[in-house]
Write a structure and sequence with these properties.
Layout: E1 2-5, E2 25-31, E3 37-42, E4 48-54, E5 61-67, E6 72-77, E7 85-92, E8 95-96, E9 101-108, E10 111-116, H1 126-129, E11 138-140, E12 142-143, E13 148-149, E14 152-155, E15 158-159, E16 171-176, E17 182-189, E18 193-199, E19 202-206, E20 214-215, E21 229-234, E22 239-244, H2 250-253, E23 256-257, E24 263-267, E25 271-277, E26 291-294
Parallel strand pairs: 5-26
Antiparallel strand pairs: 1-18, 2-3, 3-6, 4-5, 4-7, 7-8, 7-9, 9-17, 10-16, 11-14, 11-16, 12-13, 14-15, 18-25, 19-24, 20-23, 21-22, 21-24
């Protein structure tokens, strides 16, 4: 897989962050299982800031305000556990944060499911993004060079191959060995700009580069040509649903992907899956009733 991106406001060089305090920057995003979402706001000392949140990447509402007493303000959203997905931005001195952080979740029933990671992190290893899963869990990626599935198991409290990565745009087959549905939460920075997921000919495991759900072509923009196929795994039925392009009434019958859901993509010829997102600036202004935060 080849992933390219216009390094716009969604991606910030961590070494340069310290010089950008005039504009808020968000870092160190962590979602506590079944608990709060935490991140660090990097900004100038003594300035008023507002934290905005939204359950998609288009509609935003203020949830907290504060005055920074340090260049690094720790923010915790104690209400995050109520949401399947939530995203965060900060406004200070009329400037919107350079990046957006957030989390998105999916639920794997007992048995198999296909997952993808739609967030950028400095460390996208499975040990970092999926540190707490049941004993006996497996994660299988597809090696396009050898045309076979890999097998990474969680045993004795750790992954067999902890360094294996699940990068944005990639997907994997996840096995839940338990008897209860298993929530999985992915978190990090939302990528922005013009995003490209280069897909070679043949089969590969893929996922959206953005934390969005929707129809695979109409909403998520997957390009398909005659003869291409998409295999989506039905978690309830524990079997694949196969979609061959073109199909009659494709607009209405094409598969719909959930948040953090992966799929098999079989292409006759190489193609480029292009997605784009650019956050619009937010207006700054403290509103009565906002939750106050002391930084």
């Amino acid at each position: 897989m080849s992933l390219t991106q216009d390094l716009g406001p969604g991606m910030i060089d961590s070494h340069a962050m310290g010089a950008l305090h005039s504009t808020p920057t968000l870092a160190d995003a962590v979602k506590v299982p079944h608990g709060p979402f935490r991140f660090t706001i990097r900004l100038s000392i003594g300035v008023t800031y507002e934290v905005y949140a939204g359950t998609d990447l288009d509609v935003w509402a203020p949830i907290a305000t504060g005055v920074s007493s340090d260049e690094h303000v720790e923010f915790s959203d104690s209400e995050a556990f109520q949401y399947r997905a939530r995203f965060y931005r900060v406004v200070s001195k009329g400037e919107s944060s350079r990046n957006i952080v957030g989390f998105a979740s999916t639920v794997i029933p007992p048995g198999f499911g296909m997952v993808s990671n739609p967030f950028h992190n400095e460390d996208n290893s499975v040990a970092a993004i999926l540190p707490r899963v049941p004993e006996g869990t497996t994660l299988c990626k597809f090696d396009i060079h050898c045309s076979r599935l890999t097998n990474n198991g969680f045993k004795n409290g750790r992954w067999t191959i902890g360094s294996e990565k699940l990068m944005p745009g990639e997907a994997a087959i996840f096995f839940n060995p338990g008897h209860q549905p298993l929530p999985l939460e992915f978190s990090g920075t939302v990528m922005q700009g013009e995003l490209t997921n280069s897909i070679g000919s043949g089969f590969s495991l893929r996922g959206s580069l953005l934390p969005k759900a929707g129809k695979i072509s109409v909403d998520l923009g997957l390009p398909l040509a005659e003869g291409d196929v998409v295999h989506v795994f039905d978690r309830k039925q524990q079997r694949y649903q196969v979609y061959k392009f073109p199909m009659k009434n494709w607009h209405s019958v094409q598969p719909t992907l959930d948040l953090c859901e992966g799929f098999w993509c079989g292409k006759i010829a190489p193609g480029a899956w292009k997605q784009s997102y650019e956050a619009k600036p937010l207006a700054h202004g403290v509103r009565p009733g906002d939750r106050r935060v002391h930084g």
